[in-house]
Amino acid sequence: MAPSTDQLIERLAANADPVQRLRPPLVRASLWLLAVAAAAAIVVPFFANFALFDAKLQDGKFILELAGTLLTGIAAVIAAFYLSIPGRSPAWMLLPIPPLVLWLASSGYNCYREWVVYGTSGWHLGETAGCFGTIIGFSVPLGVALIVMLRRARPVAPVPVAALGGLGVAAISAFLLQFNHDVDASFLDLGVHALAVAIVVLAISAMARQPRLLSVEQ
Amino acid sequence: MAEKQDSGKEQEWSRLMAAAQEGDRTAYERLLREIVPLLRAIAGRWHRRPDRVEDVVQDILLTIHRVRHTYDPARPLSHWLATIAKRRAIDALRRRGRTEKFEISDEQAYVTFADPAANKAVATRDQAPALGAAISVLPESQRQAVELLKLRELSLAEAAKVSGKSISALKVNVHRAIKSLRAQLKGE
Questions:
Q1: Which residue from A102, A125, A144, B137 has the highest number of Cβ atoms inside 10 Å of its Cβ?
Q2: What is the pLDDT of residues A68-111, one digit of tens each?
Q3: What is the pLDDT of residues B79-98, one digit of tens each?
């Protein structure tokens, strides 16, 4: 009853209009990252506290944390673009792991240092709730922009692509947050950051399961 | 020697796909015909029944058609193909698992339940051969619309692309087909 494979091939060939090839994943990822950098250059001065940021940059541990955050974002976005193309190595999934370890280790160490000095006095959710809102708030437009670009590849396995994309946008949002982050690094603060990142990754991965949003079914 | 042959075939497939991306329909048709045995072999790793293997092969061909713009001719086509084929074969297995969860086994098929709605699934299954016969005598355009939209469950846009008909023509054909099927099945 259904058309035979031969008939299907004839119909597909009859509809084989020319298509525009996707540019290489690294080029597409770089374009997206450059666009985000340009948007950040406009938005960041409106909310940044550069004096505070400068003061924090005097601390080598903070620079490590900042580098870990930004590199996690960049690596995860590049990996998402590579994995969205069939036939690329699944090893791309591992690309954000080293900077992620650096990010977690350096922020965890900074929390530990604060805790040793100040004890639990900085454990107030009121201050960290703002961080949570900022990470989610930045992640929404970044996530939409990333999905718009990734869906052009119509990934056949959309969930890992979306999870990496989610990690990328959440890490870039956490990096932007550091331009005006006056909360002392406490474990609660780190926990709130981790929760916001996890929510972004899970939300974008869940959206990727919608057949028409990101996958080949669109 | 065999390696040399494989590498020659690989290069030829890459060339055919690059030509297909530029709109060469003959190259595309030749490529799709040449890769079918490979697709059957990959689908056969996850599916035993030949009809299911063929369904999966057709699904893979449709997927290749949709994502053909993602192929980079500088890279081997076989990796690109194998990833798509494997993914779609596994997706089909998952879909089947989900569907079978809601199917009724043969032992229960002839039990009549007190609630009339509970008998609907069995009655629907019993009508399947009659429905198949009724579809086979529909006019070609209506039969194709039912096959693509209702049996293969393609979207209107996909069905329009595969059949070469407009979306509105497909809607009209499927509407007429269902009306005609309803009349035929009621008349039995």
A1: A102
A2: 999 999 999 999 999 999 999 999 999 999 999 999 888 877 66
A3: 999 999 999 999 998 887 77
Q: Is the dihedral of CA A200, A201, A205, A206 positive or negative?
A: negative
Give the count of alpha carbons within 13 A of B148, CB side only: 26
Cβ distance B72 to A85 less than 8 Å, yes or no, reads yes
Contacts of A154 in chain B (CB under 8 A): 66-67, 70
Residue B159 domain-assigned?
yes
Same-domain pairing of B13 and B60: yes
Give the Cα separation of B71 and A84 in Å (integer).
Answer: 11
This model of the complex carries an ipTM of: 0.80
The encoded tokens of residue B106 equal: 């043969």
Residue B109 reports pLDDT greater than 70: no
- Which of chain B's residues have a Cβ under 8 Å away from the Cβ of A216? 63, 66-67
**Domain, as residue range, for B96:** 8-101
C-alpha span between A25 and A27 (Å, rounded): 5
Contacts with B35 (C-beta within 8 Å, 6 or more apart), sequence order: B13, B81
In chain A, % of residues over pLDDT 90: 45
Q: Is residue B3 part of a domain?
A: no
What chain A residue is nearest to B90 in terms of C-alpha separation?
A157
Rounded to whole angstroms, what are the CA distances from B161 to A153, B56, B154?
A: 19, 19, 10
Residue B2 belongs to a domain: no
Shared domain check, B150 and B95: no
